[in-house]
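Notebook p. 47: complex prediction with calcium ion.
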Amino acid sequence: MPVPDDPSTAGSPTRTPAIAAVVVLAAGAGTRMRSELPKVLHPIAGRPLLWHALTAAGALGPRELVAVVGHGREQVAAYLDAHHPEVRQAVQDRQLGTGHAVAAALGDTVPDGVVLVTYGDVPLLTPETLRLLVDAHAEQHNAVTVLTARVPDPSGYGRIVRDAGGGVRAIVEHRDADESQRAIDEINSGVYAFDGAVLAGALPRLTAGNAAGERYLTDVVSVAVDDGRRVGAVIAPDPTETEGVNDRVQLAALARRLNDRLVRQAQLAGVTVLDPATTWLHADVRLEPDTTLLPGTSLEAGTTVATGATVGPDSTLSACRVGEGATVTRSHCIEAEIGPGATVGPWTYLRPGSVLGADSKVGAFVEVKKSTVGAGAKVPHLSYVGDAEIGPGSNIGAGVITANYDGVAKHRTVVGSEAFVGTDSTLVAPVTIGDGAYVAAGSTVTDDVAAGDLGIARGRQAGIPGWVLRKRAGTAADRAARRAGATDDPPGEHRDTADRPDSAEGACS
Ligand code: UD1
Ligand code: CA
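Predicted complex, structure tokens below:
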């Protein structure tokens, strides 16, 4: 059978050419962060700076992705081993400049084809902008194409020096630049596309004869121009994409920018965000259309929110799954699963392993840990539920506590379906409350309660008639009691109320 043409490729514009390698520079000291943690491991949007750089580079599908590590190498290598096994690590022992770093990455075997260089501390760069660079590089048949930016304050950056025809002639570092060069407002972002063969030829020719005494990668430009090769530039459509992190002020500023981008993407994908300024989204949060985020909401890595759900205000969810139409109000939830239609909060703490069934309710000042709350079950107020399984339709009264810890080991509590646990009861685990069983309010339950039974485990109530009238004579209580018709009965006749037929109930609702 003939295979029909794939409509998605038919007549498509020129494709971004294959990338031989991307080299991500991440060996620098990052001194201004004043941190034990290497700069590239500082997170924004829930992921290290290096993750953002590698993810953008990886999106172009290079044959090889290389990270140059040096300063804080053990920590960076451990991170790469754990999270980016596809990345080859090249070691630059001493940071002798960006040119030296690229030489350390590629050694004597610079691949043919396009080689990209980016920085591990530039987290906002998008694959789209990298593709613009690579496409221009191919279309203009350049030996080198530099990603540049026009900025209001170019000080500190390398300046793009162009010839009369507008071609790039050289990149001059701020420290090495003269007055007229320092007036140039087009800066080098540090991101480049190179022809591999040209790069291979130029790297050994870089010298350290400059103000910093370093081997500048930027000098590949003048080497190529001197050899009569074409050097081009692409001006970044959004200069903030090329900004790097040097200190924690910039870390916060770029985190804010990235968050603005993530919130905007969510809004355009159908998420109502009432207050973008106080809504924080990690990079890999998944939000379905027609979800609503109220002010003060943070959704952290691994969180998914299904259609119709509302989260917030003032809630933090980390690695949680929120089902369709669920609501989470003023709560803190970690590695929890919140079923469709469930309601959580206000002021609920869901700890790892909390699984809430469809249409269940976990209410105010309730903490749940490693527990299942069945479909339609309710834990509405002031409870601790740990290492427990609560069956569908069961009602856990206000203040019920699972005593799951005996000081040495944790034990499980099982509550069957459609069971009723009266307020202020303590379920001393291991213990099982059967299907349809009741527990009387105020019980300390140490033995199982069988299906359909009532478990009652509390002291009996005794009444002492006229006690106030005798022992608190003359007080406001005495007067109130007398107005209500109380009389001073002879002592000794205790009124027993424990068998009142409704005394076993008393859960709040
Ligand atoms: C560099 C550019 C400059 C550009 C600026 C953009 C050079 C000579 N200059 O300057 O034109 O405007 O970036 O931010 O390239 N690194 C290593 N090993 C080293 C040196 C640096 O891995 O030996 C890494 C750093 O970790 C960093 C990146 O390379 O991620 C840039 O290094 P940095 O020292 O910040 O370069 P700048 O002087 O800012
Ligand atoms: Ca820098």
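Notes: The CA atoms of residues 415 and 433 lie 5 Å apart. DSSP finds ten helices and 43 strands in the chain.
Next step: compare against the earlier run before touching the bench.
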